[in-house]
Amino acid sequence: MFSLFNYKTLNNYLIIDTEEININRIKKVLDDFPEFNCVDCDYDYFEPIDVILKNTPDLIFLNLDTILDNPFNLVNEVEQYLKKDYEFIAISSSKEKTYEAIKTGFFDYLLNPITELDIRKAALKFKKKHPNKISKTICLKSYKDYQYLNADEILFLKADNNTTDFYMNNGHTVSAFKTLKTFELILPKNFLRIHKSYIINKNYVNRVNYGTLNCTLKKCLKKIPFSKTYINNVEFMINTLSQTSVLGLS
């Protein structure tokens, strides 16, 4: 048994602060919002950029008073690597840093000692600017076992007789007792069948080779074959990916 349904995407947040009272207060308030998920609370200010890029959060609480390097340079550096819809919220005991923080691009500013009310206002302000996106999840049921897969995290599906293996972007493989055809009919449009045994998530494709009749995916060492039977799907995939790419000829 399986089902496909919509759910609201979580907003992952990260706290970089050495003050435990701040960390606990932020987590306490955001626990009231089911769409917020804490990915890490970090006390190491020597390599904050590494912590941020490792977790790729949507919202970053950053204490400006205890970071060793210039926090405003950090914001500019992160901007080179993360997607454009993340936000920084500054924490500081100094009102003098407010102007610089806003000018640098901080989303909001919390003055120490931070209060639950101020945190809640910042959370609601973030929600208003970033309404929840709708994504997809697949529920696989086997007897009394329910397993939920985020469709955005699926690299590809492979047929194995009358079962289907889901290869995930974290390296895990999940098996379902349904045929590949069953999932082909219900998966989102970014999933394309390119072979009798394979359906791929085109959002992960980084190379298509007509010479060897295979394609490669991000986060996957395995080359996925495609066949002439499904060549129309392959060409459609190339056309749609090309529309959002810069063409370089060699």
From TrEMBL:
Ranges where the Response regulatory domain occurs: 12-127
Domain of life: Bacteria
Ranges where the HTH LytTR-type domain occurs: 138-240
SMART domains: LytTR
GO molecular function, one term: phosphorelay response regulator activity
Entry protein name: Response regulator transcription factor
Source organism: Flavivirga rizhaonensis
Lineage: Bacteria, Pseudomonadati, Bacteroidota, Flavobacteriia, Flavobacteriales
